[in-house]
Structure formats: structure tokens, C-alpha cells
UniProtKB/TrEMBL annotation, chain A:
It is an enzyme of class 7 (translocase). Residues 2-237 form the ABC transporter domain. One of its GO terms (molecular function) is ATP hydrolysis activity. Keywords: ATP-binding, Nucleotide-binding, Transport. Its EC number is 7.6.2.9. The keyword Chloroplast does not apply. SUPFAM superfamilies: P-loop containing nucleoside triphosphate hydrolases. It comes from Klugiella xanthotipulae. This is ABC-type quaternary amine transporter.
From TrEMBL, chain B:
This is Osmoprotectant transport system permease protein. Keywords: Membrane, Transmembrane, Transmembrane helix, Transport. The chain crosses the membrane at residues 41-63, 84-111, 163-187, 199-219. The keyword Lyase does not apply. Gene3D superfamilies: MetI-like (1.10.3720.10). CDD domains: TM_PBP2. It is found in: Cell membrane; Membrane. Belongs to the binding-protein-dependent transport system permease family. One of its GO terms (cellular component) is plasma membrane. GO terms for biological process: glycine betaine transport; transmembrane transport. The lineage of its organism: Bacteria, Bacillati, Actinomycetota, Actinomycetes, Micrococcales. Residues 37-216 form the ABC transmembrane type-1 domain.
């Protein structure tokens, strides 16, 4: 579990990115932090592996105050995936993935073996192993980025808008792939995005931020969707937009669900309690 | 005996100089072309090496931390403004005749391009790459040696290329002190008006500069990381397709 306890981050130029944030991130689930640009979401993420140090307050990982830990050692046991992959351009795909196991003291052979396994995990063809990052597509680069994030077999995986720069089709593919990986590996994933659709698809817990790193609402997608805390949340998740609102009409004794254009989208069926879990 | 009144006589000068260089008596021996060439390369190499010991770590440090940029700009500007011959004279007066005065003057000449090459090389590395290296748990030293320096190598070698070129072209001042090197032919020819010998010295310096520039250009190509090279050729390819 990752715990933020009244954490504040102000920069030397006087701006406060995050103010008095308290947040609990449960283990082995996906928590998505979502908000518009400049709301402090990336700062929150980067405080977990001490790429940014909090100005005040404490951050604990399993009751261990991270400010007492060596930042380099801490980063080696936390996976990190960033936008635009951040791969090392002078190293092959395989060596990029093997970077972290090598830093952790594995031999070259063991590290490369591990890297090859991870290419399978993220659905990359072994034939790409000896290519350079510049020879891959954006989606392939992001898969390599995810493989590198998983390479040290970390409990925690931090993902900073990892699918923000790829086209919508590839993004959907990568999102599905991440869900599959998460079902198999059950990591503690902290995922940052500005895309609420992505947040609702991937998150077990979704944290909606407003300016200054203040939490507008946090909870499961179903909780937030069914009971937006205020107008800000309602407009952010688009609950007021027609797109999310479905209409029903009784036709021939059956309840038909209609989408925003009035096109029939399906039939409405009562779910017996306990029959289907809300996500 | 010679006059510079026509293009024809200039060709005569050049021809005489080339004949002078290839006269067997001028080629070998302790005062021959080969020996002077060796001395010239020795002074140049040693000066660039001394300058590299000072400028490269400093440039890498400034490039990595981003601290002291103002120092680089000021220092390179100030050092470039120093006239080398004047500096040699001054240093020779202070330190006496010998290798030290020209060595120091040429070192001062080589520092700005080396400093600029090292600093600009590290600075040119994509911050996403060095940032990612930090995020996956590299120490600052590992980021510098495993990410920044390999990616900076083409510009780093570019600094050596330009430093060596300037030093080779200027190392004739060693003969002023009076040591050896290719400047010897120029300084020896001057009092006796032996223009073919003087021009021969100048031609040899030019040829040496051009050859060493070509060698460094080749090294620059070799040290460019493969992943970066394929990226470039990929771009070229994309441009052709477009």
C-alpha cells in the first residue's frame, strides 16, 4: 500500500503543485490519477519514486517512509513507464529492457534471458529484440517501455501517460494488453492520464484531481459515475454530456435502451443482486 | 631572384616548394621533413591532450548539471581572443625558452573547442533519455557514463577535431621559441629569403591539417552510436519517400 499523508510540493519559483494531499493506494490494484494538465498528477506520481521530493508530509510504501530510503535503490524496485517511451536510443530493445536487471546486479546472460521473457509478456515479437528504438513504431516502443518497467519484477509500476502519444487504435490495443498483464501479474499500478475514458477503463480506483493536486473525488468508476461529488466532477466525467446518458423506451413490452442519437443500443435487463459485480 | 608580379611566378614558387619538399636531402635526417612532421604532431597532440584533461571533465560536468553555463561562454570567448604568438612570447619571457611556453599557449588555444564540444554534446542528449535513465534507477555517474557520454560522442569528437585543427595550424609558433616542428622551415627560410623553404613549411602544415581533419571526420562517424545512425538513415529514407 502506498500512503500519502498531507503531502505538499512547492517549487522554488513559488508555485505549489500539490497541496496537503492525503491518499491511499491499495496494493495489487490499478489506481488511475486523472486530471487536466497542470493539476499536479505527474508530480504526485514522481514523488512515489523520489524523482521529486515532497516539501512536507510523508509518503509511505508498506509503512516505510520513503524519505528515509536511498532514491536510487528505491527507483530500482519500482517500475516506471513514461510517455514517448524514454528508451535509450543507443541500446537495442533487448538491452533497454535488460537495463534494470543489470543495474540490480544480474549477469548479462540472466538479464537478457529475463528481457526475452518480458518481450513475450508484453506481446512483442522476438524478432524485434535486436532492433533499435528508432526502428520501432510508437506502439511497439511503448510496449518495450512497459517491458522495461516490469523488468526488475517490481511490486509497484508507475505509468505516466504511457499511451498518450499513440494513435487511438493502438491506444485501445495497449490498454487491453495492460489489463491482460495486470490480470496475470497483479501489480500495484499507479497510472496518470488526462483521459477520463482511459481512467474508467483501467482503474479499480479512480482519483479525479482539480488544480493544485486537490482530490475532487476518488472511488471506483461505478461510484463516481453514479454519484459525482460535485459539478466539477460531473462535467469532467462528461455525465452531463449526452454521450454518457442512455434513454429507455418500452416497446412491445420490452425496455429498449437508446443512445444519444435515439439508435437502439440494446435491451434493458434487471440484474439480480449479486449476479454481476459493479466495477 | 624571385618576383611576385605574375601568376606564372606564383606557380613557380609552388613548384619549387614541392621540389624542395621531395628533395631527398630535405626529407630525412634530424632536421628533415619527416622529423619536423613528427615534432609538429608531438607538440600538437600533447597540447590537445593537456587541454582535454582540463576541458573534457569540466564540459561534461557543466553539460550534466547545467551549472556554470555562463562560465563556458565567458571562458571560451575570452580564451579565443588571446593571440597565440603574443602568448608564446609572454610565456617564454616568464618561463624561459623551451617546450613549456608553446605547450601552454597551444593548450589555451585548444580548451575552448574541447569545452564547447563536451558541454554541447551532453546538453544535446534528449532529456527524456537521461530522465528515463534516472527513473529506472541509474546513479548520476551511470547516467553520465552510460547514456550521456555515448550519445554525446559525435559532438565530443567534433570538439577534438576542431581543437586539433586549430592547434596543428598554429603549432608553427613552437619554432619561434625556438623549437622544432614545421614552423622551423618558415622561421629558417625567412632571414635568408628562402621562399621555397618557407612555402614548403606552409604547405606541409596545410596538408597535415587537412589529413588530420579527415581522420577525425572518420572517427566521428565511427563513434556515432548505431541506434542513432539508423535513426538518421531512417529519417533520410522517409524524406526520400516523401
Amino acid at each position: 500500500m502506498i500512503t500519502f499523508d498531507s503531502v505538499t510540493k512547492s517549487f522554488t519559483d513559488g508555485t505549489t503543485a500539490v497541496e496537503s494531499l492525503s491518499l491511499e493506494i491499495s496494493s495489487r490494484t490499478t489506481t488511475v490519477i486523472v486530471g487536466s494538465s497542470g493539476c499536479g498528477k505527474t508530480t504526485i506520481l514522481r514523488m512515489i519514486n523520489r524523482m521529486v521530493d515532497a516539501t512536507s508530509g510523508t509518503i509511505r510504501i508498506d509503512d516505510e517512509d520513503i524519505s528515509t530510503l536511498n532514491p536510487v535503490a528505491l527507483r530500482r524496485r519500482i517500475g516506471y513507464v513514461m510517455q514517448n517511451s524514454g528508451l535509450l536510443p543507443h541500446r537495442t530493445v533487448l538491452d533497454n529492457v535488460a537495463t534494470v536487471p543489470l543495474l540490480n546486479g544480474d549477469t548479462k546472460k540472466v538479464a537478457r534471458q529475463r528481457a526475452r521473457e518480458l518481450l513475450d509478456t508484453v506481446g512483442l515479437d522476438q524478432a524485434l529484440a535486436l532492433r533499435y528504438p528508432s526502428q520501432l513504431s510508437g506502439g511497439q516502443q511503448q510496449r518495450v517501455g512497459v517491458a522495461r518497467g516490469l523488468a526488475a519484477n517490481p511490486n509497484i509500476l508507475l505509468m505516466d501517460e504511457p499511451f498518450g502519444a499513440v494513435d487511438p487504435l493502438v491506444r485501445t490495443e495497449l490498454q487491453n494488453e495492460l489489463q491482460r498483464i495486470q490480470r496475470d501479474l497483479a501489480k500495484t499500478i499507479v497510472f496518470v492520464t488526462h483521459d477520463i475514458e482511459e481512467a474508467f477503463q483501467l482503474g479499480d480506483q479512480v482519483v479525479i484531481l482539480r488544480e493544485g493536486g486537490h482530490i475532487a473525488q476518488s472511488g471506483s468508476p461505478a461510484d463516481i459515475m453514479s454519484a459525482p461529488a460535485d459539478d466539477f466532477v460531473a462535467s469532467f466525467i462528461g455525465a452531463d454530456r449526452a454521450k454518457r446518458t442512455l434513454h429507455t423506451r418500452v416497446l412491445n413490452g420490452r425496455t429498449v435502451v437508446l443512445d444519444e442519437h435515439g439508435t437502439p443500443a440494446g435491451l434493458l435487463k434487471e440484474v439480480p443482486s449479486g449476479g454481476m459485480d459493479l466495477r | 631572384m624571385y618576383s611576385l608580379d605574375a601568376a606564372g611566378s606564383l606557380m613557380n614558387y609552388l613548384w619549387d616548394s614541392i621540389l624542395w619538399i621531395f628533395t631527398p636531402a630535405h626529407l630525412s635526417g634530424p632536421t628533415g621533413v619527416w622529423a619536423r612532421l613528427g615534432e609538429h604532431l608531438f607538440y600538437s597532440g600533447l597540447s590537445v591532450l593537456c587541454a582535454a584533461v582540463i576541458a573534457t571533465p569540466l564540459g561534461l560536468f557543466i553539460g550534466h548539471t547545467g551549472r556554470g553555463r555562463a562560465l563556458v561562454i565567458w571562458l571560451t570567448g575570452a580564451l579565443r581572443a588571446l593571440p597565440t604568438l603574443g602568448l608564446v612570447t609572454l610565456l617564454a619571457l616568464l618561463l624561459g625558452l623551451g617546450l613549456l611556453a608553446p605547450l601552454l599557449a597551444l593548450t589555451v588555444l585548444a580548451i575552448p573547442p574541447l569545452l564547447a564540444g563536451a558541454y554541447a554534446g551532453v546538453e544535446s542528449v534528449d532529456p527524456a533519455a537521461s530522465g528515463a535513465a534516472r527513473a529506472v534507477g541509474m546513479t548520476e555517474w551511470q547516467i553520465l557514463t552510460r547514456v550521456e557520454v555515448p550519445l554525446a560522442l559525435p559532438l565530443l569528437v567534433g570538439g577534438f577535431r576542431s581543437a586539433f585543427l586549430q592547434v596543428v595550424a598554429t603549432a608553427t609558433v613552437a619554432a619561434f621559441v625556438p623549437l622544432g616542428g614545421l614552423g622551423r622551415f618558415i622561421f629558417d627560410g625567412l632571414p635568408v629569403r628562402d621562399y621555397p623553404q618557407m612555402l614548403a613549411g606552409a604547405i606541409l602544415v596545410i596538408v597535415l591539417a587537412l589529413v588530420s581533419d579527415a581522420v577525425f571526420a572518420l572517427i566521428q562517424r565511427i563513434v556515432t552510436p548505431r541506434g542513432v545512425r539508423v535513426a538518421r538513415s531512417g529519417q533520410d529514407h522517409a524524406e526520400i519517400l516523401r
